[in-house]
Amino acid sequence: xxxxxxVGSGPSGVYTAQxxxxxxxxxxxxxxxxxxxxxxxxxxxxxxAPDHERIKSLQGNLRTVLEDERIRxxxxxxxxxxxxxxxxxxxxxxxxxxxxxxxxxxxxxxxGEDLAGVRSATAFVSWYSAHPDAAGDAFGLGAVTSAVxxxxxxxxxxxxxxxxxxxxxxxxxxxxxxxxxxxxxxxxRAVHMVARRGxxxxxxxxxxxxxxxxxxxxDVVVDPAELxxxxxxxxxxxxxxxxxxxxxxxxxGWATAPPAPAVPEAPxxxxxxxxxxxxxxxxxxxxxxxxxxxxxxxxxxxGLGGVTGTGRYEEIPAQLVxxxxxxxxxxxxxxxxxxxxxxxxxxxxxVLRNGTPSEGEYVAGWIKRGPTGVIGTNRPCAKETAGSLxxxxxxxxRRVLAGDPADGLRAAGLAPVEWTGWLGIExxxxxxxxxxxxxxxxxxxxxxxxxxxANPPPQP
Length: 460
Ligand code: NAP
Hints:
The protein has helices at about 10-20, 40-45, 55, 60-65, 85-90, 120-130, 155-165, 165-170, 175-185, 205-210, 225, 230-235, 240-255, 365-370, 380-390, 395, 405-410, 420-435, 445-455; strands at about 1-5, 30-35, 70-75, 95-100, 105, 120, 145-150, 190-195, 220, 270-275, 280-285, 290-300, 305-315, 320-325, 325-330, 345, 350-355, 355-365. By secondary structure, the chain is an alpha/beta fold.
């Protein structure tokens, strides 16, 4: 038997486990999928927006994999922490595949970034996704009328949409109740999503962009003159990758639609302003340590795909600023780390230590290739890594293990939450939803999750 630990139960971890058990070259591969959280599915549970039910339904596919008898979910297991180092983990298994994602948000590096009210989009996403580390967080939405979102990727679009959507539309989702209440009490009237480059360089995908135009009671405003600063916008025949061309067409449609009122007339109406060619240079304070706005420099294309500053400035008032400028991998104690790319150095998924493959250690997903691509991108990535591991299986299997690795985890002082524990959490979330008159509602804190995991429903 070849025993493999996959660290991380998001898509890359689950696809890696699936590839390892479903192949035929190496018989009897058993995989433990470990996660720091007591819940599986990684960013599908804690990153995909609650109103994106079709993408969320991917959890069903991941669930089928984790229910395979050759795969075991062991949550509440932190690797790299005080109890379980990477070296000890490798003693417990023949091989370890790290699928730990990219957990940190990138910063802007501009003055005022640490003022109260300036937060990362990832913190906001964690909060409305009920990540237990975000329990008790608050974004003071009641006092916010204008929010600025910096960045033009899909995360920026997600947080813009959630800020603009009415709480009533979010009520049917599994969003935790405290976040739903806060959004219901939100004073937000305008959300400005600001890109430093032009419309043809947006990193968002078209479906996500288009969705902004379909939100009830929300006007989307773009300035045709600002869009026209982009040569690829001004020239409809410009050669662009398909997604960028479609994005430009959506924006052109909004630019040519009748102008929306400056502030929507309907009670509770909101406005999304999509701004381009503005780079943040300073976050402005209100004199009491709170954010009051952002100062941007107008940019223009440099002819090489980038932009240069023009020396002209514009200020957008805001009581909340979410920076959404990408994720970054974080070093895991005991694993090599490339500070430049914020990934683990590897060759076809084999971890490299000083340029040489480290026996039994592999990576897949964002910690391997950086935080890019959609969920499906993880499939070929996981396949490549699993292929490398399986090619090494003869050497890896020579090592005799001490016994069931789960015993080793417990001996290290860990209390793994197994699949039945996760079923306990699911049952408790369904019960919470019933009590609140909603569908299943996520439990947003560690004690609640661990109590639910300790009370699994009776097995048939
Ligand atoms: P992203 O796609 O890399 O976008 C980051 C954005 O931040 C870019 O517009 C970038 O502009 C901008 N930026 C970077 N540094 C900046 C700075 N100093 N000042 C101003 N702007 C700056 O990152 P993401 O939105 O976090 O998404 C991460 C990944 O998750 C992506 O692959 C995304 O597609 C995926 N995702 C997908 C979905 C979905 O499918 N629904 C939802 C969420 C996330 P430049 O282009 O000019 O660098």
